[in-house]
């Protein structure tokens, strides 16, 4: 059962000039209501919106950092 007391909390790592790193798997709901998912053990979410694979980070932030 999702969100039950026995579920371990998910860890989110915040980087100053980089993506949000989340322990996966994850589902992300975008502004338009679309849901995208990843079953990877760690996921990088873009926070700069420069990624060509948004919402996933493709390290485009490094070009303009």
Structure explained in plain terms:
Keywords: 2Fe-2S, Iron, Iron-sulfur, Metal-binding. It holds the Pfam family zf-CDGSH. Residues 23-65 form the Iron-binding zinc finger CDGSH type domain. This protein has 65 residues and is mainly β. The chain is 0% helix and 29% strand. The protein has no helices and five strands. The protein has strands at 12-14, 20-23, 26-29, 35-38, 42-45. The strands form two sheets. A three-stranded antiparallel sheet has the order 1-2-5, with no helix packed on it. Strands 3-4 form a two-stranded antiparallel sheet. The radius of gyration is 13 Å and the shape is globular. The termini are far apart. 9% of the residues are buried. The mean pLDDT is 86.
Labels describing this entry:
single chain, 65 residues, mainly beta, two-stranded antiparallel sheet, 29% strand
How is the topology of this model organized?
Elements lengths: L11 E3 L5 E4 L2 E4 L5 E4 L3 E4 L20
Antiparallel strand pairs: 1-2, 2-5, 3-4
Give a concise summary.
This protein has strands spanning 12-14, 20-23, 26-29, 35-38, 42-45. It has 65 residues and is mainly beta.
In quaternary terms, these chains amount to: single chain
The H/E string reads: EEEEE
What radius of gyration results from the CA coordinates? Answer: 13 Å
Q: Beta-strand level of the residues, as a percent range? A: 25-35%
Main sheet overview: 3 strands, antiparallel
**Average pLDDT, to the nearest integer?**
86
Discrete helix count: 0
Spatial gap, N to C terminus: 41 Å
Percent helix among the residues? under 10%
Protein name: CDGSH iron-sulfur domain-containing protein
Organism: Streptomyces marokkonensis
Domain Iron-binding zinc finger CDGSH type: 23-65
Keywords: 2Fe-2S, Iron, Iron-sulfur, Metal-binding
């Amino acid at each position: 059962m999702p969100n039950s007391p026995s579920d371990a909390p998910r860890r989110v790592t915040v980087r100053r000039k980089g993506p949000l790193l989340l322990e996966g798997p994850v589902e992300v709901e975008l502004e338009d209501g679309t849901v995208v998912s990843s079953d990877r053990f760690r996921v990088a979410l873009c926070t700069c919106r420069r990624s060509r694979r948004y919402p996933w980070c493709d390290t485009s932030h490094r070009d303009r950092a």
